[in-house]
Specification:
Blueprint: E1 9-11, E2 38-40, E3 66-70, H1 77-93, E4 96-99, H2 108-121, E5 125-128, H3 137-145, E6 150-153, E7 164-168, H4 170-184, E8 190-195, H5 201-217, E9 222-229, H6 234-247, E10 253-255, H7 259-271, E11 279-283, H8 287-295, E12 300-304, H9 306-321, E13 329-332, E14 334-337, H10 345-351, H11 355-358
Parallel strand pairs: 3-4, 3-5, 5-6, 6-7, 7-13, 8-9, 8-10, 10-11, 11-12
Antiparallel strand pairs: 1-2, 2-14, 12-14
Helix pairs in contact: 1-9, 2-3, 4-5, 6-7
Length: 361
């Protein structure tokens, strides 16, 4: 299956020889894997703002706009970074950001209500990360019908009503993680995919990319299970992960497609005494996961640029209100972080955004 458009992978691809496979029972990693690090999906650069637009100040900023940013949830570190990026753009373009969303990433009805309330309030534009690709289509179409443009970020929507879609190439991110895992286990072994949540377009694409890469780079691997869902919280992911580990004691490697699923599986591996013995590759990042990578119990993370995503979402919304033409699709970058590139300067900048600069903590 072809990758999504707009992707350029910069990588040094090293095939692991059969006699140079990582032993994750001792976390002694072959020399070839030390060189496996890749940076991908360079953000699109585009113009925004016009000093001649109505309502603009002397520097071209729009001084009276309300841009609502609606995340999937507010508890994960990822959404804190989205918020920081949105506030960074708000400061640059002189607009007000209204940050509202459900606490947990499974409250579809509350996200619908938030959007409906913002429509009634008459905000100038909405930047939305849809919890569900289908259920959020009607509220978005209602907003557009009222003259409120919508920029969709992070996860896709089954509608043509939005003005632009700004996200990581989630399919390719899954492929990056899948290729890394497949080559690390020498193309064979017993593998588990713990999915995230039905209806989430972003993670569904990551899962699909992972499976395609596993089939390509580890055709002799055995996929033990790929039909269990971690759910929206770390607590639920822990419970599901414990069930999987009890059911399949012979697991060699696991892929998890988001922050809470990764942390839940990591905790389950720790409580079962198998952390480090089983290879774990996840998606997204927080400090607990970074600490686990340094401890040798987590072996890879596919990391997005949520600050950049939040920034580009608000920037696009401002441009639309000003009458600018913007791309229908913009890809933000995705990076594979491993124990061997974690201290690189560009990786550290992405992993530790300056929240204090943009958010009132």
């Amino acid at each position: 299956m072809p990758a999504e458009p707009g992707v350029r992978i910069i990588a040094e691809h090293v095939s692991l020889r059969a006699n140079a496979v990582i032993s994750y029972r001792s976390f002694s990693v072959s020399h070839t894997l030390r060189r496996f690090a890749l940076l991908a999906l360079i953000p699109v650069v585009w113009g925004c703002g016009s000093s001649s637009s109505e309502g603009s100040g002397e520097d071209g900023a729009v001084s009276s706009l309300e841009i609502a940013v609606v995340p999937k949830g507010t508890t994960h570190e990822f959404w804190k970074a989205i918020h920081a990026g949105a506030e960074k753009a708000a400061a640059e373009f002189g607009v007000e950001v209204i940050w509202q969303g459900p606490q947990k990433e499974d409250d579809r009805q509350l996200q619908i209500q938030v959007v409906q309330n913002l429509i009634s309030r008459g905000v100038d534009a909405i930047v939305l990360a849809p919890l569900d690709s289908r259920s959020m289509a009607r509220p978005v179409e209602a907003a557009v019908a009222r003259g409120i443009p919508v920029v969709v970020i992070d996860s896709g929507l089954e509608s043509d009503a939005q003005s632009s879609f700004i996200a990581s190439n989630n399919y390719e991110g899954g492929r990056i993680g899948g290729q890394y895992l497949a080559e690390a286990i020498g193309g064979q072994g017993k593998v588990v995919l713990l999915r995230y949540q039905e209806g989430s377009a972003s993670t569904t694409n990551r899962e699909r990319g992972f499976l395609d890469a596993l089939n390509e780079y580890a055709p002799d691997a055995e996929l033990l299970i790929d039909n269990m869902y971690a759910g929206a919280t770390m607590a639920k992911a822990l419970q599901v992960s414990q069930n999987i580990l009890n059911r399949f004691p012979e697991i060699d490697a696991i892929f998890t497609p988001n922050e809470s699923a990764t942390q839940g599986m990591l905790r389950a591996l720790e409580t079962s005494g198998r952390a480090g013995d089983v290879m774990l590759v996840g998606f997204d990042v927080n400090q607990t996961l970074l600490d686990a990578m340094r401890d040798g119990t987590l072996h890879g993370l596919v990391v997005q640029d949520p600050v950049g995503m939040g920034y580009e979402g608000v920037k696009a919304a401002v441009a639309i209100v000003q009458g600018e033409t913007i791309p229908e699709r913009m890809d933000t970058r995705t990076i594979l972080v491993t124990p061997f590139n974690i201290d690189d300067a560009d990786i550290q900048e992405l992993l530790h955004p300056d929240f204090d600069r943009w958010l009132d903590n």
